[in-house]
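>> received
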Amino acid sequence: MAAKITHVAIVYKGVTYSLPAPNRHYNVISLIVEKTGERMVGENEQGFLDEEGVFLRRAPALIRARKTGQLLKDRELNNNVGMKLYSEDLW
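>> returned
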């Protein structure tokens, strides 16, 4: 069975920052600002970590969340194939 999603995560300047559920991506942005002392500018990739520590971008994370049955029922109705996963879809 596929590993469940456990964290929100952002890859910024080649470093992966993450926080466990029920945090949101804005919490990770605050963490990055705190750790780096700079405002987040430039390239970043928002996604999730699974329980094995693997980073998943938003679209593959939606597929994983469906496989593992993690989507909240009301959010499943609003997501179509090819869409992106948001933390609100999980917790």
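>> The radius of gyration is 13 Å.
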